[in-house]
Write a structure and sequence with these properties.
The complex is a heterodimer of chains A (246) and B (254). With 246 residues, chain A is an alpha/beta fold. Helix content of chain A is 39%, strand content 25%. With 254 residues, chain B is mostly helical. Chain B has one domain: MetI-like fold (Orthogonal Bundle), CATH 1.10.3720. Classes of the chains: A alpha/beta (246), B mainly alpha (254).
Chain lengths: 246, 254
Amino acid sequence: MDAVIDIQHLSKAFGSHQVLKDIDFSVKKGEVVCIIGSSGSGKSTLLRCINLLEKPTGGQIIYHNENILDKKHDITAYRTKLGMVFQQFNLFNNHNVLNNCVVGQIKVLKRSREDAEKVAMKYLKVVGMDKYINAKPKQLSGGQKQRVAIARALAMEPDVLLFDEPTSALDPEMVGEVLKVMKELAESGLTMLVVTHEMGFAKEVSDRVVFMDKGVIAEEGTPDQIFNHPKEERTKEFLQRTRNSI
Amino acid sequence: MTLDWLMIIIKENWPMFLRGAGMTLLISLIGTVIGSIIGMLIGVIRTIPVPEEGVKRGLLKLVNAILSIYIEFFRGTPMIVQAMVIYYGSALAFGFDMDRVVAAIFIVSINTGAYMSEIVRGGIVSIDKGQFEAAHAIGMNHFQTMINVVLPQAIRNILPATGNEFVINIKDTSVLNVISVSELFFQTKSIAGNNFRYFESFFVASVLYLIMTFTVTRILRYVERKLDGPDNYDMIMMGNQMQVETPVIKEKNR
Ligand SMILES: Nc1ncnc2c1ncn2[C@@H]1O[C@H](COP(=O)(O)OP(=O)(O)O)[C@@H](O)[C@H]1O
Ligand SMILES: [Mg+2]
C-alpha cells in the first residue's frame, strides 16, 4: 500500500520502564491521523521514536520499503523527510524568523540562499508570518512562534509532518490561530500525524484517530467511531474525563 | 620625594614601560583568542553524544580521555611551572631555544584553552535541549547543529567568562618573566634593577596593569551590548507592542 511510514512491533523502554509496547501503526499518504490519550501514555515517545529523537528498543520503522532502524541507514537523510513541530516551539533563538526557515534548507538540503528564501517566504505566507521575517523568536507571541515553527518544518518539504501537542503551551486565545493553520494544511492534502488534546480538532480534521493508553494503541478508527461509538471501556472513560474537564 | 622619583622614573623609562605593556597585551590577547578557539573545538568534541557501540565509540572515548588529561594537567598546575617545563623541556627535546615570545603565546594559549574548554562545555550544555532536538529533527548532524544553532548562543552566554579569562591573562602573563619574556613585569624588574627604586617602579607597573584590565573590561561590556543590539532594529519594523519586552529580556541575559 501507499503507507508513508509503517511501524511494526515498535517498543521503547527507558531502563526497566517499558513506555511503548508492540505498536503496529501506519500513516498513508495524504492522511491526517490524530493521536489522543492521557498524559504519560506514551504519545510523545511514539512521535520521538518515529523521527529517531529516541532510539526504539525493538521493532521496525519501514519507510520506502526500508527498515530505517537498520544500522547502515542514513538517519539524517530520513529525518529531513519528517517535519516535527514541538510543544515548546523550539525556534532557533539565534536566528530571525526568515533564517529559522532557511538555515536547514541551506545546510541540510544544500539549496542556494536565494532558492531557500523563496521557499521560506512561500510557507511563511501560508502561516501568515511573512511580515515578521526580521523578528527574533523572543519578540514573538507563542502563537506566532508556533506558526513560524510550522513554516520551518514545511520549508524542508517533508513527506510527513509530526505535531506533538502544538497548542498545549499556548495561551487559550492563541490556540485558534495555530489550529486554523493546521486545518488548512490538512485540507491541502499534507500528511500529518498530530498528538493533541484538542478533541474538537481531532473530530473535525482527522481521517483517523488513535487512542493510546499505557504504551499501547487501545483503539483506533474514524473520528465518528472513536468519539461517538467507542468500543473499548478505557476509551469511553478517557472521553468522559476530557468532557468533564471542559 | 617619592613623587619626584615617580616622575623621574616615568620620564626616563616610559618607552620601556610602554613596550612591556604592549607585549603583555599582545601575549594575553593572542593567547586568549587561540585559547578560545582551542576551547571551542574541545567543547564541541566533548559534547558529541557517545554512540552505544562500534569503533567510533572506542575512538571517541579515547579522545575524551586524552582531552581530560590535558584539561586536568593545565588546570591543576601553576602557569609559572608550565612555562618552565615547556620552555626548557622543548630546548631539551628539540635541541634549540624556542623564541621567547612564541613560547609565551604558546603557553598562555594552551593554558587558556584548558579553562575555556570547560567554560564552552558549560555554555553548550546550558542551551535548551529543544534547540538540539529541533536542529536534529531538521536533519542537521552534531557539527551542523553546533555551528548553526548552539555555538552562536553559547558564545553569547560565555562572553563574560571569556572576557574574564582575558583579564586574568593580562595579569598572569607576569609570571612569564621566568622565561625572560619582555612583558611588563620583566621590564619593570629591569628598570627597578637599574635605579633601585622598587616601590616607585612597580607602582607605575600596577597603574599600567589596572589601565589595561579596566579598558578591556569596558570594551567587552560594550561588545556585549552591541551583540544584543539588533533587537531594537527589529522592533522598529514591528511596531510598538514589542518595545515593552526588551528591558525584561536584557535583564535575563545578565
Ligand atoms: N527520557 C525519558 N526517560 C525516562 N522516562 C521517560 C522519558 N521520556 C518519557 N518517559 C516516560 O515515558 C512515559 C510516557 O511519556 P510521554 O511519551 O511523554 O507521554 P505523553 O506524551 O503521552 O504524555 C512517561 O511515564 C514518562 O515518564
Ligand atoms: Mg507528551
